[in-house]
């Protein structure tokens, strides 16, 4: 029990760092556009900054394939450590990266290289954390443990938000562009080193030790997964729609609150941070309840609530904040993505199959979701909510029908 708890805590640290960096890059995109790209055109400089951000997502599947392969044939622990290393080093490099004015186009190239390197590492980081924890905890505590992992991932968003808010509160716009933007990235790199040290204390999972002792390790686990686990990969794609909906409601939609709701930037950030706290609480409570009342029942119930409250807040009326926060609490259904995904693949190909399906789906959805929300947020956001609602219910139906032992 104590070992499972320790490994759950250590496993969560990388995910916190990932989402922390995610928020920082988005919030400082305007700064990066000015200091790391040619200044011929402000619009295109910003577009290039977002392309650099998106490059990390497009690199995720390649990292997933490589790292997950070695996780299935060499062990979860070592790959988990290496992926963290490839996240921490780029964060530190970014904190000290010279500007375009100092080193010219090399600054732009290094920025792209940093994002791609992080994307390769992140391709295995989150799914590895899910698998690592699921193979340590008992089935009776699976919901709470993976609900905790989902909550800590979202905690990274909150910390990134607060770090950004602090920078803009204590420094002028000129100071932020000149040096202050580097502070939160340096802090992230520092805590990344701490997390890296803690991961040296991780133990190999009992599940991997078992397949190794029984000589069940496959030469090419991904090929086997593609042949035998097609339905599992479809379920992963559906659950990834639910996961990326969190990006839509927590990160993208709040950028439009000032215009939609007629509030100032501070109020918009307050709403966003309250929403993040609600989804953290929702993930924890739903994971806990799932262990007691059953995964399928709890997921279906809160999916229904998410659909009702999500469509309700899409009207942006005087009840918006209440419905928005209730929808985000219900959106704790993101906790069921790792719960279901980790149980629908055989142990000997779990890392390869899950990581490939999840990261391919996330690369595509993570790239197009900002454009979808930008098109729908004002009048048609309820359609996006309904689409997510259907994907969640369909995933529950498929898992329950095909994997009745869960």
From TrEMBL:
Topology of this chain in the membrane: Multi-pass membrane protein
Highest taxon of source: Bacteria
Cellular component GO terms held in the UniProt record: plasma membrane
Pfam families associated with the record: MFS_1
Stored SUPFAM superfamilies: MFS general substrate transporter (SSF103473)
Keywords: Cell membrane, Membrane, Symport, Transmembrane, Transmembrane helix, Transport
Chain segments annotated as transmembrane: none
Keyword Transmembrane helix part of the UniProt annotation: yes
Main location: membrane
Subcellular location: Cell membrane
A GO molecular-function annotation: symporter activity
Protein name in UniProt: MFS transporter
Lineage, broadest ranks: Bacteria, Pseudomonadati, Campylobacterota, Epsilonproteobacteria, Campylobacterales
């Amino acid at each position: 029990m104590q070992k499972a708890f320790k490994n759950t805590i250590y496993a969560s640290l990388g995910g916190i760092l990932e989402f922390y960096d995610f928020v920082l890059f988005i919030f400082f995109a305007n700064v990066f556009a000015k200091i790391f790209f040619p200044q011929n055109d402000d619009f295109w400089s910003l577009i290039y900054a977002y392309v650099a951000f998106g490059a990390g997502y497009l690199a995720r599947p390649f990292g997933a394939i490589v790292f997950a392969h070695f996780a299935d044939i060499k062990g979860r622990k070592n790959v988990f450590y290496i992926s963290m290393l490839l996240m921490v080093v780029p964060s530190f490099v970014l904190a000290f990266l010279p500007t375009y004015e100092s080193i010219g186009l090399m600054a732009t190239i290094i920025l792209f290289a940093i994002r791609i390197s992080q994307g390769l590492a992140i391709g295995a980081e989150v799914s590895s954390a899910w698998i690592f924890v699921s193979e340590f905890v008992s089935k009776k505590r699976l919901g709470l443990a993976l609900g905790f992992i989902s909550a800590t991932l979202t905690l990274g968003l909150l910390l990134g938000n607060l770090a950004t808010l602090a920078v803009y509160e204590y420094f002028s716009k000129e100071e932020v562009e000149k040096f202050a933007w580097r502070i939160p990235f340096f802090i992230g790199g520092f805590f990344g080193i701490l997390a890296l040290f803690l991961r040296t204390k991780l133990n190999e999972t009992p599940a991997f030790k078992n397949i190794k002792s029984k000589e069940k390790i496959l030469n090419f686990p991904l090929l086997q997964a593609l042949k035998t686990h097609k339905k599992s990969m479809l379920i992963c794609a559906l659950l990834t729609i639910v996961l990326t909906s969190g990006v839509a409601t927590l990160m993208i939609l709040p950028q439009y609150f000032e215009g939609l709701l007629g509030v100032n930037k501070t109020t918009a950030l307050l709403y966003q941070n309250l929403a993040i706290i609600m989804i953290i609480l929702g993930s924890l409570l739903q994971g806990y309840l799932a262990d007691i009342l059953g995964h399928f029942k709890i997921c279906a119930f809160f999916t229904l609530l998410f659909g009702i409250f999500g469509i309700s807040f899409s009207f942006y009326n005087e009840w918006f904040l209440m419905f928005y926060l209730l929808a985000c609490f219900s959106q704790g259904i993101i906790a069921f993505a790792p719960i279901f995904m980790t149980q629908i693949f055989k142990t000997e190909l779990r890392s390869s199959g899950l990581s490939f399906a999840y990261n391919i789906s996330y690369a595509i959805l993570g790239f197009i979701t900002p454009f979808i929300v930008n098109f729908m947020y004002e009048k048609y956001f309820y359609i996006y909510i309904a689409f997510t609602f259907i994907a969640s219910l369909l995933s529950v139906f498929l898992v329950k029908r095909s994997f009745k032992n869960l």
